[in-house]
Amino acid sequence: MTSDPTTDAARSRPPATRTVVCPDPGATTSLGARLGSVAVAGDLVCLWGDLGAGKTHLAKAFGAALGVTATITSPSFVLMAEYVGRLPLFHLDPYRLLDARDALAGGLLDERQADGVTLIEWPERLADALPAERLDVRIEGTGDEPRTITLEARGGAYARYLDAPS
After folding, report:
1. Alpha helices in the chain (DSSP H)
2. The domain spanning residue 125 has which CATH number?
3. How far is 73 from 14, CA to CA, in rounded Å?
4. Has residue 154 been placed in a domain?
5. Which residues form the domain of 105?
6. Domain count, the chain
7. Strands across the sheet with 117-121, in order?
8. What is the pTM of this model?
9. What distance in Å separates the CA atoms of residue 64 and residue 162, rounded to the nearest whole number?
10. Using one digit for the tens of pLDDT, what is the confidence trace for 86-98?
11. Cα angle 91, 95, 99; round to 5
C-alpha cells in the first residue's frame, strides 16, 4: 500500500478549531442550522459525544438547513438513513458495530456519498477508516447542562464551518 502525501499531511497537521457554548437546546439547534447552511457535496461531518450529548438533535437541525423535510431520527438500528434535501443527507450511526471492518463490509461507506453530505454519529467505531479531511464536532455535556461544542476543521476545505457559528 502506498502512502498519499496529501492525506499524510492532513493527518499530521493539527485541526483548526472553534469552541461554542450552547446554553440550551435552542442554541444547539441554531448551531446545527448554521453548519448545515454551509455544507457542500462531499462533506463528511463526524459527531462525537456521549450518549445524550445531543448528536441527533444537532443532526436534525443540520438536515433541516439542507431542506430535509422528513423526520430525522437516530439510525442506530438501520445503521444509515438517507434523506432528500438541497443535497442528499446520509446519516450514519455505527454504534452497534464492533469496528470499521463491519461498516465497510456492510456497505456503509460508498461512492454515492460524494454527491451529498455524510453525518456520522459514533465515528469512533470507524477509527482509521475515517478520511483525514473532515469536520469533527465534539459535544461535551449531557442532560440539562449547557453543551460545549468544539468544531475541528481537519483540512482547509472545512474551515468554512468555523465561521458558521458567527
Report:
1. 5-12, 25-37, 55-65, 100-105, 160-163
2. 3.40.50.300
3. 32
4. yes
5. 17-163
6. 1
7. 16-22, 147-154, 134-140, 44-48, 117-121, 89-92, 80-83
8. 0.84
9. 19
10. 999 998 887 555 5
11. 110
